Amino acid sequence: MGNELPRWIDAALPMVLAATGLLHPESPATYYACLGVAFACLATVVLGGAAVMYAIAGRVGTRIQGPRERPPKLGAEAFESGRAMFVAACLAAWPMAQWQLGHPTGMVWDLGDHAWWAVVLQTVAGVLVIDGWLYLKHRLLHTRWLFGFHRAHHAFRDPTPFAGFAVAPVEALLTFWPILILCAPAATHWAPLYFGLVLGFIGLNFYLHCGVTWRWIEATLPRVLLNTSAFHNVHHSHVKVNFGEAMVLWDRICRTRAVDADTEPLEAAR
After folding, report:
1. Would you kindly state where each structural domain of the chain is located, as residue ranges?
2. Following DSSP, what letter does each residue of 95-119 receive, concatenated?
3. pTM
4. CB neighbours of 141 closer than 8 A, spacing ≥ 6?
5. β-bridge pairing 107-108 and 62-63
6. CA–CA–CA angle 31, 177, 86 (5° rounding)
7. b/e map of 123-158 (b: 16 or more CB within 10 Å)?
8. Pairwise CA distance, residues 252 & 63, whole Å
């Protein structure tokens, strides 16, 4: 797929998603109020957290790619991350509006009659399934026909924490669509566990893109099959290996780690 068509689709998608709020069956105004709150919260956490992590990584840790030859593309990374958070907010506004209008959702603070162990097992299973989807999505975006929707992320070959969510809108939609599952009351999500996992995923993405390694983290995360800064940075420099986003489980199963292939560095924009 050529460069121009994905660019046009990515430019139009946020506007299309926002316009769907006009179709809200009860209160478009409530949807847009929730959209504003969701975007403000997500953008503040992601961009504010990235700024904090960027400051820390500039002082602590071992640089993976050595001294930077060029200034980091902070503005471009922040723009793409902000645009991705707007896509996520468009999705989050649906269950938020449902809750605001007094309807049940899949998010609960009190487990009530739900057994805690069943909710935890359901959450663990959901994490594994969604991580498998993220891996598959990432592999698909590296195909000839879809790479145009992923190219923007690989413009950041030596990334900073601001690149943690610096993906174009189509990829953001493919990444964050599970938020809509919260609209189903039967899909029980215990809020403390859910938000804990969300914050953990955000923090992990900051570390994966910070450009440095911290020895104790690099030694700890692989023991629970989580991705690391060193592992993911190889994906930015080599492109065709280490596709895992949160976990490395599927890279191990599918043998797509750098250690599984004799891979030479490729041009990031290829």
Report:
1. 4-260
2. HHHHHHTT---SEESS-TTS-HHHH
3. 0.92
4. 147, 149, 150, 171, 174
5. unpaired
6. 55
7. beebeeebbebbbebbeebeeeebbbbbbbbbbbbb
8. 25
Cβ–Cβ < 8 Å for 49, 137: no
| Nearest CA among 130, 177, 175, 169 for reference residue 149 | 169
Give, as one character, the DSSP assignment of residue 83: H
Within 58-190, where are the H helices? 74-100, 116-141, 151-154, 169-176
List % helix, strand, coil for the chain (3-state, nearest 5): 65, 5, 30
Residue with tokens 């504003």: 36
Kind and range of the H or E run holding 231? helix 229-238
Distances (CA, A) of 55 to 183, 201, 208, 239: 37, 20, 15, 27
Sign, CA torsion 27/31/36/40:
positive
Tens digit of pLDDT at every position of the chain (270 positions): 557 899 999 999 999 999 999 999 999 999 999 999 999 999 999 999 999 999 999 999 999 999 988 899 999 999 999 999 999 999 999 999 999 999 999 999 988 887 888 888 888 999 999 999 999 999 999 999 999 999 989 999 899 999 999 999 999 999 999 999 999 998 889 999 999 999 999 999 999 999 999 999 999 999 999 999 999 999 988 778 999 999 999 999 999 998 887 544 433 333
Query: Which sign does the torsion angle of CA 128, 192, 38, 73 carry?
Result: negative
Provide CB contacts within 8 A for 19, sequence distance 6+. none
